[in-house]
Design goal:
GO terms for molecular function: catalytic activity; iron-sulfur cluster binding. InterPro entries: rSAM (IPR007197), rSAM_PoyD (IPR030950). This is Radical SAM family RiPP maturation amino acid epimerase. It is a single chain. By secondary structure, the protein is of the alpha/beta class. It folds into two domains: 4-101 and 434-461, no CATH class; 120-230 and 297-405, no CATH class. It is built from 16 helices and nine strands. The strands form three sheets. A four-stranded mixed sheet has the order 1-7-8-9, with helices on one face. Helix 11 links the parallel strand 5 and strand 6. Helix 1 packs antiparallel against helix 6 (88-109) and helix 2 packs across helix 6.
């Protein structure tokens, strides 16, 4: 398997000097404030000729005048053009975004299994083609990891828009001697059966990682066995700051994929920025979910339930769901196996558009239970043999119909990740964060242009536009 994604990601940072990395981290913080804080945007719009005093007030140590195309409406026409060289920080940021998008695309190749497990490989390739047809613009940012592990049951956060309708927290998988040995055995089996593709795995799904106080120990075991440190997405980075910092230290040593914090409000953003420096969060993407940063929510899971029952509490929430309803109907990304260590449950899953039949946005094709690593191996192999045909059955004439030869799923999981995009760990920069004086809905529709985005339009959408006379 190629390690192109790993090398690409590391070189994106190694080639920069410490001072360049520090500068990049402060540009990143500027874009976070721009997207997630209406008061910050208003202050910039009122000080367009002297914006530095605004950033100084927020502890952002870069000059906005050196990145005008990123935020000033009169200068965005120069973005991605040779003229943008006169704003070096804008050029630096756009280059960084391009590299992260390229890294995201390379990650799909890490699931390659044509030699070690050709049946699984062929099945995954067919699921990718089907999702490209069915999921619209969302499919462009899915990297199709082959396995995900839940290290607890349910979630303590309870986001109203949870794309998988997370259940109430019922406990976590302990790192006792016996259970740690079982965990290492299960990961070892995954490495044996899937080879290097096991590196795509991650350790949350219908859970928040920070609900398990031993989460970092499970991560380190995974790294030692597979050679890859799983990516972390959490909506509770402040719950146990010592644990969060241990995870960030592991990332600094071994990480090759950006971590993510799901930010639920401006107050949450303020707390995160007060707790962690820009430099500490350079490798952490902040997913801004607050109402001042109307990130589109998937029309799946709890958001779908609330809209269907007429229980949305405000127009902003309803709009946030409607923004990408046509193209964004699932947060699921795994085409492979979902493992709950607490229950000893193994499911074969694949993304589908959220619907009445599959409201969580993924289909469960099969299910097994295990108590030991050997039983885990047997469960994997039996579902590979049963469901992963070398080619679709004759009655299935297209990739989208392939699952017609399989049994119906056993139902939908009662739990889900804490945030709308925690279902997929490797979709850095997944959805636009931009806000302008135009209607947000109208702007997003213009970005989508059906269901495909050009790289330039996608990058353009990741920052805000502030005009001289009207704040965004």
């Amino acid at each position: 398997m190629t390690r192109a994604a790993t090398e690409h990601y590391r070189q994106s940072f190694v080639r920069r000097t410490p001072e360049q990395l520090r500068t990049l981290s402060h540009v990143k913080r500027f874009t976070e404030r721009l997207a997630g804080d209406v008061e910050f945007r208003k202050a910039l719009s009122e000080n367009v000729d002297a914006p530095r005093k605004v950033t100084e007030r927020y502890g952002i140590e870069v000059d906005p005048m050196e990145m005008l195309p990123l935020w000033h409406g009169d200068y965005q026409k120069y973005r991605f053009k040779p003229e943008s060289a006169q704003w070096p920080l804008a050029t630096m940021w756009d280059e960084h975004l391009r590299k992260m998008l390229r890294h995201r695309d390379l990650l799909r190749d890490e699931g390659e299994m044509s030699t070690i497990n050709p049946r699984f490989h062929a099945w995954r390739e067919r699921q990718i083609r089907r999702c490209n047809d069915e999921l619209g613009a969302s499919s462009l940012s899915v990297t199709y990891p082959i396995i995900a592990f839940e290290l607890s049951e349910g979630c303590t956060v309870g986001c109203w828009f949870c794309g998988l309708s997370a259940g109430r927290f019922k406990g976590y998988y302990d790192y006792s001697k016996e259970q740690a040995e079982r965990w290492r055995g299960v990961v070892g089996v995954a490495r044996e059966v899937f080879g290097s593709a096991a590196r795509t795995g991650f350790c949350y799904w219908a859970t928040d990682p920070m609900d398990n106080p031993h989460y970092d120990r499970f991560l380190f075991d995974y790294y030692r066995i597979t050679g890859a440190l799983p990516q972390t997405t959490t909506a509770a980075p402040l719950k146990d700051q010592a644990l969060t910092r241990r995870v960030l230290r592991l990332f600094n040593l071994y990480g090759t994929t950006p971590n993510r914090f799901s930010v639920l409000s401006k107050a949450h953003l303020n707390q995160i920025h007060m707790t962690f420096s820009p430099e500490e969060l350079l490798g952490v993407e902040l997913i801004l979910q607050g109402k001042e940063a109307p990130t589109a929510k998937a029309f799946a899971g709890r958001a779908r339930e609330r809209k269907g029952k007429g229980k949305l509490r405000s127009a902003i929430k309803d709009d946030a769901i409607a923004l990408l309803e046509r193209d964004h109907t699932t947060i699921a990304c795994v085409s492979g196996f979902l493992v709950n260590m607490q229950q000893g449950r193994l499911q074969l899953v694949t993304p589908v558009p959220g619907s009445e039949r599959w409201p969580l946005g993924y289909r469960i094709l099969g299910e097994r239970f295990f108590r030991t690593p050997d039983e885990f191996r047997e469960g994997l192999q039996s579902m590979i043999d049963q469901y992963m045909l070398e080619s679709p059955a004759p009655t299935c004439r297209s990739a989208s119909a392939e699952t017609c030869n399989t049994k119906q799923g056993t139902g939908t999981s009662s739990s889900a990740p804490a945030t709308w995009n925690t279902g997929c760990p490797t979709t850095s920069l997944r959805f636009p964060l931009a806000i302008s004086s135009r209607s947000v809905t109208a702007q997003r529709r213009s970005w989508l242009c059906g269901s495909r985005l050009t790289e330039r339009a996608y990058l353009q959408s990741l920052t805000c536009s502030i005009g001289c006379t009207r704040p965004g």
